[in-house]
Amino acid sequence: MSTTPDSPPDGPSTLGLSADEVLTTTRSVRKRLDFDRPIDRRSVMEALDIALQAPTGSNRQGWQWVFIDDQSKKDELARIYSENFSLYRNLPRPSYADDDPRAQAADRVVDSAQYLADHFARSPLLMIPCIEGKPETSGSSAAFWGSLLPAVWSFMLALRERGMGSAWTTLHLINGGEEAAAELLGIPFDRYSQGGLFPIAYTKGTDFRAASRLPAGDLTHWNTWGDSGA
Fold first, then answer.
1. Which of 42, 77, 89, 143 could disulfide-link 11, Cβ–Cβ 3.0 to 4.6 Å?
2. Taking a C-beta distance cutoff of 8 angstroms, is the pair 181, 194 a contact?
3. Contact 200, 79 (CB under 8 A)
């Protein structure tokens, strides 16, 4: 496993979750991020080593990972995010039936998202995953982002196993924010695209549960759209 020169000799133990437990209990963590506990860099790098086993188109591995713990840079990224979040917060919400699990969770999700926007800069560590190229000039957008996003999700899963959490946010990318972040961090904007902005911290407790989701049967088609196979 990769380590950094200032890594402690022994990182915290893993939780020992099964693959199914990791997959069903890795959440976008906001209110339960522990902003006061220092991040163990060795564990972060172990999680990234695992994430880099994810599939990537033509085995190009054109990803780069930018970690930020400098407070002044975190403050500026948080400012960019917060300004865009304020615009997003005022957009009309999607409407769902009363018994739809998305409707039942809507207020809770908005409240936790606002909490994160208000406290973003307190995150011990931020991360921006990057992929070489630009989606508009790289042919299929599915192939382009498919060479980065599996590794990002694997990283979140590996963090969960190590008692850490994150939230996948993308609002810093709009309204010129991606270019501003690139300038702040020295990311070659003309050659790399950013896949999000991730607060990373240990979690307050590790007892996360499976989320309420739409039934798989309602989202399934066999051979023809609209044929549920029932």
1. 42
2. yes
3. no
Q: Name the residue among 87, 127, 85 with its Cα closest to residue 109.
A: 85
Q: Is 82 helix (H, G, I), strand (E, B) or coil?
A: helix
* pLDDT tens by residue, 136-150: 876 689 999 999 999
Q: Residue 176, CB half-sphere, CA atoms under 13 Å: how many?
A: 3
The encoded tokens of residue 30 equal 């906001």
DSSP state of 54: S
Q: What is the set of domains in the chain, with CATH numbers?
A: 28-89+110-205 (3.40.109.10)
Long-range contacts of 40-43 (CB under 8 A, 24+ apart): 40/7, 40/8, 40/11, 40/12, 41/4, 41/6, 41/7, 42/3, 42/4, 42/7, 42/8, 42/11, 43/11, 43/12, 43/162, 43/164
Nearest-angstrom CA–CA distance, 170 and 177: 10
SS3 sequence of 55-70: CCHHHCCCEEEEEECC
Buried-exposed string 183-194: b where 16+ CB fall within 10 A, e elsewhere: eebebeeeebbb
